[in-house]
Amino acid sequence: MEPTEFPPLPALPQAEGEFIDCYLAVLDQVGRINPARGSDTYSALRAAQALASRAAALRDALALMHERGERQIHAATLARALRVLDGERRAGRVAMPPTSK
């Protein structure tokens, strides 16, 4: 079996890489909290507790970018990075699941 080839991750400055990592961590926690997808209160509680620290890290990453004079988010490049890092699947966990017929 051949190893899976992943598309290359776009070159990102460290601050933008941290922004993407923190954003995905927030998405993961919100996906775990999603009441339409969860199964127990304890795992949702743990995810909610983790969400607070992940959100603070995201805030800090964005604050650092702003302090360094980065005023624009390069959406196309960051969207490419999110796709490579499985962002579409991870963001999908935040949405409502499809209805069963």
Radius of gyration: 16 Å
Q: Unreliable runs, pLDDT <50, ≥5 residues?
A: none
Count of DSSP-assigned helices: 4
Q: What share of the residues lie within helices?
A: 55-70%
The profile of the biggest β sheet is: none
Instruction: Tell me the fraction of residues in β-strands, as a range.
Output: under 5%
Shape descriptor:
globular
Strand tally is 0
- Average predicted local confidence, pLDDT: 91
Distance between the termini: 37 Å
Order of helices and strands: HHHH
Q: By helix and strand content, what is the structural category?
A: mainly alpha
Could you characterize what this model shows?
The structure is a single chain. The chain has 101 residues and is mostly helical. Helices cover 62% and strands 0% of the residues. The chain has 4 helices and no strands. It has helices at residues 14-33, 41-67, 75-84, 87-92. The longest helix has 27 residues, at 41-67. The mean pLDDT is 91.
List the helices and strands and how they pair.
Layout: H1 14-33, H2 41-67, H3 75-84, H4 87-92
Helix pairs in contact: 1-2
Quick gist of this model?
With 101 residues, the chain is mostly helical. The protein is 62% helix and 0% strand. The chain starts with 13 loop residues before the first helix and ends in a 9-residue tail after the last helix.
